[in-house]
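Appendix C reproduces, verbatim, an entry submitted by the partner laboratory led by Prof. M.T., so that reviewers can inspect both the input and the predicted structure.
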Amino acid sequence: EAAEAERERALARAEAAEAARAETLAATAVAQARAKLAEERAARAEHQAAARIAVAEAERDLLREELSVHKARIDDLRAQLEAARAEAAELRERAVSAELRSAPAAPDANQP
């Protein structure tokens, strides 16, 4: 009887150990599945971030190109403005010269 009781206790311990082992295996499987899911989410997030970065870089490059075009246009307009100012100054000088040439000579106050 004592041997039978000991054998039943040993069997109960073995069953408990097997149940604990099965529980540990299940918990490990759940943890592994969660880890795999987390890795997949991280990879997806990384891919999406890389795509957003690529789009932002393309937009930045486009804006830089547009800025360069606008700067060139401003430089061109400045050059045109400077040329127009120079032409206006030359025309003013010509107008003054023409006016001086066409004005009647003022009588000299020293002549009798």
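The helical segments are 2-102. Additional entries are available on request from the coordinating office.
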